[in-house]
UniProtKB/TrEMBL annotation, chains A, B:
Keywords: Isomerase. Pfam families: Asp_Glu_race. This is Aspartate racemase. Belongs to the aspartate/glutamate racemases family. Gene3D superfamilies: 3.40.50.1860. GO terms for molecular function: amino-acid racemase activity.
Amino acid sequence: MRAVGILGGMGPAAGADFVRLFVQACTRHLQDRGLPVHDQAYPEHWLVQLPMPDRTQALRRDPQSPEGPAAHLLQGAGRLAALGVRSVALACNTAHAWHGQIQAFFPQLRVLHIAQQTALYLKAGGARQALVLATDGTYDSGLYDAALADCGIAALRPGQAGRARLMQGIYEGVKQGDMPLAMQCFGEVLAPLLQHHGAVPVIMGCTEIPLALPQAPQACGAELVDPAWILACALAQDAYAH
Amino acid sequence: MRAVGILGGMGPAAGADFVRLFVQACTRHLQDRGLPVHDQAYPEHWLVQLPMPDRTQALRRDPQSPEGPAAHLLQGAGRLAALGVRSVALACNTAHAWHGQIQAFFPQLRVLHIAQQTALYLKAGGARQALVLATDGTYDSGLYDAALADCGIAALRPGQAGRARLMQGIYEGVKQGDMPLAMQCFGEVLAPLLQHHGAVPVIMGCTEIPLALPQAPQACGAELVDPAWILACALAQDAYAH
């Protein structure tokens, strides 16, 4: 087994939930192979949650600003590398705007890419289009558009009002612990989009969205895709790889 | 804010849940003080989950065996210390049998003690007796008996058959992902004890127990005390202390 790392704090609740998903992905890995499940069967893993400057704001202003997240992401990844981890997952979609920079700095690490992993998963399932729910920062960076296009999948997104309501659900809802508000915002954005586009896979492309959308009544019956779960499975696979 | 650490892997699901509790305790800390809640308001925190030899087995045989958890606990704590954390929580009750050893090795760390924190909490609430549900290892080590006695609280425990059923719920239930079995085991132990002792606080003295007991019908209306939550609050307090 290889030691792996999780770079979080974006936000902290989503980072904590990502560890839960990773442990669950490891359990699934063991069970699928008929291996015994006990404490000692899990790989060494590290989570660091740093007070990280806002990603969307930095992308809107200057992604390389010394006040932005770039330096914090690099020091977090550097300390994970020093601990001997081999693969790292970024527990934040928007932070993937700095993925290439982190990967280039630390060639000894494999930095997994949440949108590429998600696109590969959807491609394997035969999807031709997918609805992306994300932060403004993630939309601006074209993170999912590029990864989905590489797999021949068209990316659909809400209009401007819907995007503003998503940001409200993320920032005033989940990040401030107001889950009813988050459910309401996310559900209201989803309903008309599903009505318009039909039953397309819904990518919950911000780690805060899966903490509230699945409980919204408008999400009932929708094909919700959690990129954090897909990323957690990819990290578990790396941890168990020889 | 001070960086803090969590030493987990005992088991990994409980360690992941402890991070969730810590983040929730930080949110509560901020809200109680009317401070704004956003990603940057959370302290730096680290979780390490190591493949850790079984604690109860080691206590039954030789607590200082090189195959036991002592060396692993010390290397985990040592790496957390090297990362600059100031306070550490052990996300496992039974592992507190090695608390004194870890604390003595790393005087630069404050290693919180789950049973002492729980006893202080119950004392503040005026409790005179409490029911302890735990592993054989924790019972053998007298962890809660000593901490509760220091606070003038009598420790009640299940008989031998009940203790064996708790171990089954922990090892065959939670640690193997079989939550219905865990709920059944924990609930069956609790019901006759509450009938016999009346409405006493119930200390869920193994980090696996709160993952299943609260959902058991027999626990409905019981005063369940989660030492992991109390420990998470103490760690949050250290992180925000000046």
